[in-house]
């Protein structure tokens, strides 16, 4: 998957300064396949902090900004200005930042969830639709080869008609009131103003929801949610139980939690149809279990017999040499690069190039909004906003 | 756990003839610790079939019956008549059979669920309360040593205050319409007249529900259920999704399914509190995962360091030599024997002797009834009948 | 696998008194399928201890002995005397005890290893060959259904020509000098006079060696062993490393250890041929991994698709309801019963009835002797005595 | 672990052209933490192929060579010439290539094994010792965080005195005669002239051997090896069984195989001492099992409670987000960068910076030579050349 001779795409970044987490992940992901070169950034709204972060990264100080609108404006004018920007701020800043770049035709690679609230998500969709630029949402778990394999198998009918989807994403890092101890990540992720009305359901439930749809191809019809904030004083949910009804009759369950001791990032998806079942777990991402009904379960692995074209396309190294989180994340960057290169050539994005879109992002925010709405009403069935 | 010198308890059986499944399990379980001797049975309502089954088992033909009321009557009059009876018929026969023995003071060991319908379950409770005899319900998973260990740890506060209970019991054997092929087990288990209004939720969901309560000690307050019959023509649910609200604020999810390819008897329980989590799976029953919050997860095993008194009491062989389903089932028989011997001595059942009761059985049937009621109304929150 | 009407076989026991371990296992195993009834025993050479043990078990005091030769003599004369005897003493007593019963035509079910030393093992072979009675050696792991499955698959050529056998049996219970603390099991198992010259290699290495041969069908040609006694003062090996050369060119490695912390009874066998591989672990005995070369690995489970006739024959309960150590052990008793019944009818033992023989036992003792000999000479290649 | 402001180190590469495997791995590893920039290469001895590969990678054609000596000479003269070179050719070219750079003071990052044969390995040691430049050998498994954790725990005495080391590295990709089908990787790796006299033992056995020593800190005293070429016509071993005796009395077993169906890169290390055991497997690299004797086993994970300073130092992302093979490999590059920067500053390499050295490489080649020598003599105990 290494770059083949076409030159690196010039990348900027908004957010991701010294005390951030996801910014560094995006940078490693962007570097791995050598498709991008980070050349500009607005790492903080405080000039000194932004410059310090830019200096850490070896950037030209002239291209380190403390205002993203200013960055968008000036980069758009540069002959060798950025072609794409990674938005890695807290959720509530995604839209204000992205809009500045979109309206100047700079491609946006945006962290999830799309926005903190539904109205902004709709505006993001409009902004993206009005723009010539591409919009890539980093639901990074969709970059894992064996997730691609699962999607391909479902689409090929190997499970038959789908009946049941079980998806869960438990963590334990918010079991105690970490947000009161000065931990930045915990602070903003439990602050409705920055994170949105969903806590666990917004932060990780959206990943689970996206993964389920990405693999199954199913569309949500209605849901019934029971959200809890178990930790005293917490302003957003830290545990979410959701029943799902999909168009066509399949049923599902989704569980997200940040108060389940012993769970790190235990995202797990199981899909069952009338011909077979699949099971995949993020913490062992190189394996996909396939159980054709009436036959012994098979352990499919990345890079080996049983892994098809969709997985092979995004596989870097041989079977048994585990690829991990960064590689899956990098795949989205490499997909973004392929899309951007096609776009630059005036060609459509090739069908095998797959990444989560702004529409997926809107669906995710609508999902969170529906969960909160259902739960606020006592756990009734609701439909997500169209 | 072998018998120590007190003589075997004389046991009868109702049901469990040649083409049954659970009858043989009960017999093996009753034999393992040598506490019981099967001496009489009504294995079928057809005389020849009952006699043939009795002959297979080496019983005296005079004590093989084709009518359970007759059996109860005659055994009650014998000097060396049965002291206890195992009821292993389809669900709808549990009450009619048990009542005959209870009213004659013969202890009843009854398979689950207690009855096919709620009114009968209430009558069973009354019959048991009116009787001097003991009533043991074989929710056999409560006999596994590491389930006892989990219960003991929760009770000792090792998880702190409980917050979340995730329990599931998926199978795959009814993925297709097996009940139309002449398979006896599938026939009666999908027949509402014999099995009850619950399909998967009655057959295995009750096990999951009981296990969750047995370990957590939590009481159900309300539930919201979405039941499906995915297989065309099936008259009972084959997949059940249930949200749980426990008294005191804990929340739970329960999933039972008989249409999830790749799952055999994948009963799994996870319980989380503010100090730690536990995870146990029936297919690897000798292991219990304990994750104290902020410490590495520990793999506790039957018979080894970390397993306490409650597990040790029901452990037969050393760590690493797996005990399985029959041993767990046998433990309930051995608990029953301990209770019966205490009863015979006019003593109370010792507190360490633990088995599911008729009250547990009523709660299980009320749970099933509530699930069906909730789902029939479109998936609303309901309270189980008291 | 329950008894079908033929009456129980009368069983005696030598050894297995109150402070023993394996005696209780034999009794549970003998009971499970209801083929045997324990009616006599010599549980100790001390009369009071033997009587106390017999009383625990509800035996007629007249049939509880303190001298096995006396027991053999008297039982042989009884009209309803024992038909078979289980020998569950320390190793050095196997031969003296077994010989008394063999010469009186009483079938012997003997714990492993066959004897403490090679000369006795040869005498045991002769005694068994001279006797009309059957001899069954309880290498109990050969009773697990998925071990039978593995054996059947190898025999059917599913692995092609065998190349490599990896077998290991690590434990940790002798990591410290437990034998100096009064622990009976540790005492005799580390005492060369009672256990034999092999420590771990005799106690558990023989199980591993037997299992490898049972499944692979390969014959040992030569071995090279490096035995160690890591615990100061220990008189027998507590760790054994052995290289194996099989007739026909396959190669193997065998590791036994009683000083490997974290291992309970981690017997594991892997067999590789030019068409595929198999892997089985005693602590998860219901699963067998099959990896046909160039295809995804398959998880075969007891009672489910992929398990063939040999496994089905010794399976009691459905897939996903784990059978464990006692069930596998019980299978050897049930095989013994089938053989004894055939013998009583003057018929040959049916070919599907499989149990380890006195010849297997001799091979095991010869293996231990060869390991000790090889190691004593500095780790040279030696051939086991024919 | 991202670069902090110091500028990238200029890197060249020898080998790693279009049809290679490990070259791409080195490039991704070098990029991940942004410490290196690839600026020159001799990707093939054929000018066109080298240029084509260089063009793929976006290199300046003037800095793409077809002769490594020429490359070394010219780069050494450039003001902005390479500071380090990655040698990723087949084994027999490691020394001829490395020597050219070493003698010009260019740091060498060399793939394993050090050389194809022992005499060359000794010359490599001399060349490295005579050079001012650093020498880093990419036994990449030593870069995994939980391998660092294991090493740190052993060094801290958490296992007590070591007794037993079990290490294995089975694969299956050479189960058939792949080298006769035109597969480049199989061709050179089974060609003694390019790979060395060891087949599996040289290609992967050296990894296993290095890992065992890296974690345990033990020194090999003697070994006894039984090597086989199971595939007809194969000129090197494809399966190796080795007994190990370490200085101080610990014992070990090493198994490498390329004909074990179902194994991908199943490198696994287990180390046991008198206080506890550790187990680590390359295919689940984020987990380390720690079994303190007499306590429940603990599952230590990268980035979480129980992982200490040595692991934390080389950890990029949070627990539960798996790091894989490339990240472990990248760690060696980042260690190399730290060493190179210290060297450039005239400072010693900091003690926490850890990478395999030329001495480790010589020990590895001596190990292979000793295995071949032992096996050729029929499997006798030999000492590796000092």
Key phrases:
homotetramer; about 375 residues; alpha/beta; Rossmann fold; Dihydrodipicolinate Reductase, domain 2; 9-stranded mixed sheet; 12 helices; 14 strands; about 35% helix
The H-and-E topology of chain A, N to C, reads as: EHEHHEHEHEHEHHHEEEEEEEHHHE
Mind telling me the C-alpha Rg of chain A?
Answer: 20 Å
Poorly predicted sequence stretches spanning 5 or more consecutive residues of chain A:
none
Task: Estimate nothing, just give the exact number of structural domains of chain A.
Answer: 2
Return the structural class of chain A: alpha/beta
Number of helices of chain A: 12
Name the overall outline of chain A: globular
Distance between the termini of chain A: 37 Å
Assembly classification: homotetramer
The overall strand count of chain A is 14
The CATH architecture classification of the largest domain in chain A is 2-Layer Sandwich
Q: In CATH, what is the class of the largest domain in chain A?
A: Alpha Beta
Major sheet attributes of chain A: 9 strands, mixed
CATH topology of the largest domain in chain A: Dihydrodipicolinate Reductase, domain 2
Instruction: Please bin the fraction of helical residues of chain A.
Output: 25-40%
Beta-strand portion of chain A reads 15-25%
Average of the residue pLDDT scores of chain A = 96
CATH superfamily of the largest domain in chain A: Dihydrodipicolinate Reductase, domain 2
Strand adjacency order, main sheet of chain A: 13-12-11-10-6-9-8-7-14
Q: Which pair of chains has the greatest number of interface residues, and how are they split between the two chains?
A: A-B, 44 and 44 residues
């Amino acid at each position: 998957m290494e770059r083949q001779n076409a030159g690196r795409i010039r990348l900027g970044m908004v957010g991701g300064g010294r005390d951030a987490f996801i910014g560094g992940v995006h940078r490693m992901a962007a570097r791995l396949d050598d498709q991008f070169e980070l050349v500009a950034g607005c790492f903080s709204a405080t000039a000194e902090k932004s410059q310090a972060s830019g200096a850490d990264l070896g950037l030209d100080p002239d291209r380190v900004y403390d205002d993203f609108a200013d960055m968008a404006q000036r980069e758009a004018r540069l002959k060798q200005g950025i072609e794409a920007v990674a938005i890695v701020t807290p959720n509530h800043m995604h839209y204000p930042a992205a809009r500045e770049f979109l309206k100047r035709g700079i491609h946006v690679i945006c962290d999830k969830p799309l926005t903190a609230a539904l109205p902004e998500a709709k505006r993001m969709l409009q902004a993206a639709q009005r723009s010539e630029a591409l919009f890539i949402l980093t639901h990074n778990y969709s970059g894992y080869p064996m997730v691609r394999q699962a999607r391909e198998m479902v689409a090929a009918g190997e499970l038959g008609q789908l009946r049941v989807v079980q998806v869960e994403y438990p963590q334990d890092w918010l079991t105690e009131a970490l947000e009161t101890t000065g931990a930045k990540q915990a602070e903003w992720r439990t602050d409705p103003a920055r994170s949105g009305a969903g806590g666990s359901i917004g932060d990780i439930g959206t990943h689970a929801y996206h993964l389920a749809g990405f693999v199954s191809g199913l569309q949500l019809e209605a849901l019934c949610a029971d959200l809890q904030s178990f930790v005293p004083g917490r302003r957003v949910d830290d545990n979410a139980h959701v029943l799902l009804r999909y168009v066509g009759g399949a049923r599902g369950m989704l569980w997200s939690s940040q108060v389940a001791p012993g769970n790190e990032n235990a995202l797990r998806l199981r899909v069952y149809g009338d011909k077979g079942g699949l099971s995949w777990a993020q913490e062992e991402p190189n394996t996909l279990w396939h159980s054709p009904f009436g036959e012994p379960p098979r352990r499919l692995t990345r890079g080996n017999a049983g892994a098809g074209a969709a997985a092979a396309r995004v596989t870097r190294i041989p079977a048994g040499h585990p690829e991990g989180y960064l590689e899956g994340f990098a795949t989205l960057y490499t997909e973004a690069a392929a899309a951007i290169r096609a776009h630059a050539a005036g060609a459509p994005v090739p069908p095998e190039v797959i990444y989560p879109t702004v529409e997926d992002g809107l669906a995710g925010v609508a999902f969170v909004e529906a969960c909160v709405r259902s739960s606020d009403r006592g756990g009734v069935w609701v439909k997500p906003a169209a």
